[in-house]
Model the fold of this input.
Amino acid sequence: MIEIKKLTQAVQRQLMEEIINGSRVGALVTDASKEDNPIIFANKTFETLTGYTQEEILGRNCRFLQGKDTDPTTVSKIRRAVSERVPLTIVLKNYKKDGTLFWNRLNLRPIIIDNVPYCIGTQTDVSVQYRQIEELHTKDYEIEQLMLPIMRIYDNLAAVSLIGQMTEERFNLLITKLSDYVHSNEVDHVMIDITGLYWQQGTSIDRLLEIQQVLKLMGCQLYITGITPVLAHKLATAKDPQQVLKTFSSIQQAIFHIQR
Done:
């Protein structure tokens, strides 16, 4: 068995410093007993991450990393966690010394040593992951745009076909797209074909009525096409007479009605 030599305190301290400064995670320690919770330690990784030197970091509150796009609600959560001395892991937008924005995954952990409260904070740059998430959201939005194409049939008539399941997000997108289209193109009639729509819940009917109200305020009439006789009866017997939708079994029938 190999004998393990006990390290002196000086060696242990030096090794600990090397471990902390060699970490890929930025680390801070603040004195929670002092007013404004000043920073009393920052590792080398934090300097590299933010671009600030030790002289620019020590004695300051961590808020110097905040900027115009830092969410105030997130800052309030951090402030409350520090005040109540509870652990917290949260992601927020911070800024480097040169003004570069980065997504910071902050992990706070309160500790007490010799009856003195401290707060340890580690920072990890997760900007790459968040940029990838934003790119996915952008691609999802582009796909949604392609899934809701508005076609102009005549000068005063446009149509859109709904396919698949209509989520709240898709309905909100549809309302926005139709409103913008009607405003920009000054059409008087809009047809929504629901032949390929998956009707999972009755809320879709309410959303169609909502779309009708929005278009009516813009001086545009809505027509629903591609419905079954059962659904046509349900739509035509709304409790409020002002909320009745104009329905047709096919696009051709609706066009014939509009052109009469």
Summary: The first strand starts at residue 26 and ends at 31. The domain at 148-259 is CATH 3.30.750.24 (Transcription Regulator spoIIAA). Residues 78 and 88 are 7 Å apart (CA to CA).
